[in-house]
Amino acid sequence: QGVLVAGLGTFAMLQEQFQGKEEVYVVRRPVFRLELDVLCLQELAFPTVVIPGNVKIKPLNYKRLSQATSFPQHVVKDCVQETVLLYSSQLKNGQRLSFAFKDIGVLSCKDDLLCMRFYSDCVTGLERKASRIALLHT
After folding, report:
1. Where in the numbering of this chain does the CCDC81 HU domain appear (predicted)?
2. With 60 as the cut, is the pLDDT of residue 138 above it?
3. What is the DSSP string of the chain?
4. Model-wide pTM > 0.90
5. Contact at 8 Å (CB) between 99 and 106?
6. In whole angstroms, what is the distance from residue 13 CA to residue 27 CA?
7. Pairing between strand 9-19 and 99-101?
8. Spans of all domains in the chain
9. Distance CA 103, CA 125 (A)
């Protein structure tokens, strides 16, 4: 399953297999595929993340966000869109700011590398059995 934040990227949860010393671990881990405007990324490097075609991607649910925040849906949608535009504008202008997502992680740019760093609680919350392996591979 995944969520598309239009103009920014896609958050998804992938299930992958990793070979341990004695057994194969199947772990769930979060990924982020950046989908910012190419003009913003001309001087930046970023990891290429492949999200398999069998992962269902849904657009950000503004109705649920509206209910969670008690703001009207159109206000929430406008706020998200303006925030994405502001962030991409700052990247385009050479500002290297971090973009924090509560309980998920931080999209940061350091040494011209733009990447999503997930909080360990986010990763371990997805994967209880093999959380250390999921952390190592995220």
Report:
1. 57-127
2. no
3. -EEEETTTEEEEEEEEEEE-SSSEEEEEEEEEEE---GGGGTT-B-------TTS-EEE--HHHHHHHHTS-HHHHHHHHHHHHHHHHHHHHTT----EEETTTEEEEEETTEEEEEE-HHHHHHH-STTHHHHHHT-
4. no
5. yes
6. 10
7. unpaired
8. 2-128
9. 10
Contact indicator for 123, 30 with CB cutoff of 8 Å: yes
Residue linked to tokens 């003009």: 39
Cα(67)–Cα(42) distance, integer angstroms? 37
At residue 40, φ and ψ (nearest 5 deg) are -75, -25
Choose among 57, 20, 46, 37: nearest CA to 107: 46
pLDDT tens, residue by residue, 20-79: 778 777 778 899 998 877 656 677 888 888 899 999 999 999 999 999 999 999 999 999
CA distance 86 to 40: 11
| Token pair listed for 53 | 């075609």
Where b means 16+ CB within 10 Å and e means fewer, 107-123 reads bebeeeebbbebbeeeb
